[in-house]
Specification:
Elements (H helix, E strand, L loop, with lengths): L6 E2 L2 E2 L1 H30 L4 H17 L1 H12 L1 H21 L8 H31 L8 H30 L1 H21 L13 H5 L8 H20 L3 H25 L2 H24 L2 H12 E2 L1 E2 L2 E2 L8 H22 L6 H25 L5 E2 H29 L5 H25 L7 H33 L11
The structure holds glutamine.
Glutamine binds next to helix 6.
């Protein structure tokens, strides 16, 4: 098993291979996303509304496909191969967008090529995103206390990519030329793949196909099953290409897809798993159920909070007016600073046998994210009728980051700890599917804060309401946490148990 290999900073070396691969993947994702809305409005000359439509369809579809990628990795490919293939599709997608820049305002074939690039990223992310987190989990034995700190470190890599992508791709794209920004995203993903391939030995053999024979077996289409899957991926690119242009379908697709995925998991759990494993799947589903609420609040950052910062926050500092969009990197910077603190905190508490369980941390996360909104509401009330001091928006992001660290990396770790290995990719994919639902709800909340014609009071009213709702639900989660913990059967996870 994996745990006997060499370590670095007390963690398996493979963690750092995955850290850098995911850093570059997120660099490409967030770097490209920072340019996306401007490319649509300023280059293809779309109006705001259709541009938001395409942006929304893209950002939800990237979190829908990981369920399929996770499932395929569990059953046939293994997580390592899935990450490799996914990275290739992602890199090709970004490079395609970069290379196909036409004259300003020309849509036609250029637009089709652009959609094809987005579709390739959507499919690639489906192969990569859930499975790379699965690989992180497989580096640790089931009861290993280093798993949560390990995911905190991994999460730091995500956010180093998330902070630097927008700066580098954004700057290149908006100043030198769009192609340069998108091209940089593609090159970033290629660098991630180089790391992943060069240091694959450090993964100590985790994430290999469950049954290699099954992968080589011929299928009805005349090629091996492995190649049949890759051919299927090209077909999926065509479907994603179509969906990007039929955005009305995406919401419905999300609901139908989520319902059938949950149904499928429940079916597998109830009919194929022994009691302990079944209970753990129920525990994981409980955590997944809290995802839409958390991300619906958290994802106000890019939309309504961004606009509030722009219109109602005093951003003057040292005689300069700081652009609102710069506040978007505050969360990632806080993560990079605070992730090591949280990793150390979990280890410290664990040594004293005091480490809180995942459901408990989720309850805390929901309370703290709610408090973040209330802090802003409080700060705004101090200067009625005048702009809110910037300190309060920074405080909000501080609370939201602390909440994120109790929620997101903990959730990733819990998915790997609570799933049987034949379902781990599927569960991780479902975690991201719940994120997609959260993003969708976030849009509804942002709309409820009203447009440019209603004052900031309306926004603050909505913030105070969602803040309190989250706190109350968080307290309820704390109260039922002990019962959920029982479903996890932690007592059976001895430190030596393999994943
Ligand atoms: N920011 C994190 C990432 O990109 C979490 C994303 C999410 O689950 N919504 O991986």
């Amino acid at each position: 098993t994996a745990m006997q290999g060499p370590t670095f900073l007390g963690h398996p070396r493979g963690l750092f291979v995955l850290f850098f691969t995911e850093l570059w993947e997120r660099f490409s994702y967030y770097g490209m996303r920072a340019l996306l809305i401007f490319y649509l409005t300023k280059h293809f000359l779309f109006g705001d509304e259709p541009a938001y439509g395409i942006y929304g369809a893209y950002t939800s579809l990237v979190y829908v496909t990981p369920v399929i990628g996770g499932y395929l990795a569990d059953k046939f490919l293994g997580a390592r191969r899935a990450v490799l293939v996914g990275g290739l599709f992602i890199a090709v997608g970004h490079l395609m967008i970069g290379l196909l820049e036409g004259p300003v305002g020309t849509q036609g074939g250029y637009l089709n090529g652009f959609y094809l690039g987005l579709a390739s990223i959507i499919v690639g992310t489906g192969f990569l995103k859930a499975n790379i987190s699965v690989l992180v989990g497989q580096l640790y034995p089931r009861g290993d206390a280093r798993r949560d700190p390990g995911f905190s470190i991994f999460y730091m890599g995500i956010n180093i990519g998330g902070a630097s992508g927008p700066i580098i791709c954004g700057l290149l794209g908006e100043t030198v030329g769009w192609s340069w920004g998108f091209g940089a995203a593609g090159v970033g993903m290629l660098l991630g793949l180089v790391v992943f391939v060069l240091f694959r030995k450090d993964l100590m053999g985790v994430g290999e196909p469950p049954e290699p024979v099954l992968l080589r077996a011929r299928t009805a289409v005349g090629v091996s099953r492995e190649w049949a899957i890759y051919l299927g991926a090209f077909a999926a690119v065509a479907v994603a290409w179509w969906l990007l242009q039929s955005q009305g379908v995406v919401g419905t697709l999300l609901v139908v897809f989520a319902a059938s995925t949950i149904g499928f998991i429940l079916y597998r759990a109830v009919f194929t798993l022994p009691k302990v494993e079944r209970d753990r799947v129920f525990g994981a589903l409980f955590l997944i159920a809290l995802c839409p609420l958390f991300w619906a609040l958290f994802e106000q950052a890019g939309s309504s909070l961004n606009v509030y910062t722009d219109r109602a926050v005093d951003r003057s500092m040292f005689g300069y007016e700081i652009p609102a969009s710069l506040f978007q990197s505050v969360n990632s910077i806080f993560i990079v600073l605070m992730a090591p603190v949280f990793a150390a905190l979990w280890t410290f508490l664990d040594r004293r046998r005091l480490e809180p369980s995942a459901p408990f941390k989720f309850g805390i996360g929901l309370i703290v994210i709610g408090l973040g909104f209330l802090v802003l509401v409080f700060g705004a009330a101090l200067t009625p009728g005048a702009p809110t001091p910037a300190m309060f928006i920074l405080l909000l992001y501080f609370f939201h980051t602390a909440a994120e660290l109790c929620f997101s990396p903990v959730g990733l770790a819990a998915m790997t700890r609570l799933s049987v290995s034949s379902m781990v990719g599927l569960m991780m994919g479902t975690w991201f599917l719940a994120t997609a639902a959260g993003n969708f709800l976030a849009g509804q909340i942002a709309q409820a804060t009203g447009g440019e014609n209603v004052g900031p009071e309306r926004v603050l009213e909505v913030y105070s309401r969602i803040g309190w709702v989250s706190i109350v639900i968080g307290v309820v989660v704390l109260l039922i946490a002990p019962f959920v913990v029982r479903l996890m059967h932690l007592e059976l996870m001895k430190a030596g148990d393999p994943v």
